[in-house]
Amino acid sequence: MSEDPNGHPDTCPRVAIRPLTLADAGEFTARARESAELHHPWLFPPTDADAYDTYARRLIEDPAKAGFLVCEADDGAIAGFVNVNNIVHGAFRSGALGYGAFRHAARRGLMKEGVGLVVRHCFHRMGLHRLEINVQPGNAASIGLARACGFRLEGFSPGFLFVDGAWRDHQRWALTADSRRSTYS
Hints:
single chain, alpha+beta, 6 helices, globular, disordered N terminus
């Protein structure tokens, strides 16, 4: 088990997180294809090798992004993914999370553990202070996950992100390192 400098593990009893790599293309895209109905109309992870290569390289090479896989602890199977986008350091020290479970892992609580590990990683290893999740109001599963992970609803942004061919409204959920400590102390 690896730990951050503050003694927080990158594993829970049921999941572990690890950085996404180019070598994950086969399993990731197969799971994305199996999960297309689950994801639609909220997100569209890559379903073929070329799209995955572009997606993964952005997460690996851009210092304002980081990609993590949530893997089942018993067999290492990819259960889902969590991306940290728009990472800003300096006085802001913030990032925006995006995530998705794969069909075989949905509704099993694995993503709650995985998002929790990524949040801990962001606050402790990456030195971020604030994380946001932007969710379309009709995406009850994603809102439930944000709430279960301690994020609080901060507001509503009309026409916030271009998703599935249109500008979509989003709720803004946020969590700070300070509020997480007070919630989980």
